[in-house]
Design a protein that fits this description.
- The chain is an alpha/beta fold.
- The strands form two sheets. A five-stranded parallel beta sheet has the order 2-1-3-6-7, with helices on both faces.
- β1, α1 and β2 form a beta-alpha-beta unit.
- α2 packs parallel to α3 and α3 packs parallel to α4.
- The N terminus and C terminus are likely disordered.
């Protein structure tokens, strides 16, 4: 049996991201934001727990931006299921809930990061930079972020 940990995603190209949120306007806005980032690529969008798991298996994204609240399950349950898959992608929980309890639940479920929706534009680049170090990605913590706020 091979006990070697999964290889990090090949990042010779852009980091492939799956957006998961039940709000179509939020997904569209976030997809538009990601499209303006040269080192990020949209791998797909999902609105429910079952659709998320199907797309993670099919598209094999490097990163999942996962809403905490969605039809068919909560983000912690979906994160746990994603992290149970072979070669699981990184997961950043993205939510409008700011409480420590949601952050703790996300971490216990295996999330690699936690960002509130109001902080997304400012916190996403440095969080990605930590998950995909500069030698693997062109994103750096001090990279300028376009002005604006992603609506909730």
């Amino acid at each position: 049996m091979n006990t070697t940990p999964p290889t990090p995603p090949a990042t010779a190209g852009p980091i492939r991201i799956l957006i998961v949120d039940d709000n179509g306007d939020f997904r569209a806005t976030l997809a538009n934001y990601l499209a303006r980032q040269p080192d990020l690529e949209l791998a797909g969008q999902a609105a429910s727990a079952s659709e998320t798991l199907r797309l993670v298996r099919k598209q094999r994204p490097d990163l999942v931006l996962l809403d905490y609240s969605m039809p068919g399950g909560n983000g912690a349950e979906v994160c746990r299921a994603i992290k149970g898959l072979p070669s699981a992608p990184k997961v950043i929980m993205v939510t409008m809930f700011e409480g420590k309890q949601f952050r703790d639940l996300s971490v216990r479920a295996g999330a690699d990061g936690f960002i509130t929706k109001i902080e997304l534009c400012t916190e996403l680049p440095p969080t990605i930079a930590k998950l995909f170090p500069p030698q693997e990605s062109e994103i750096t913590p001090d990279r300028p972020v376009p002005a604006g706020r992603i609506p909730e």
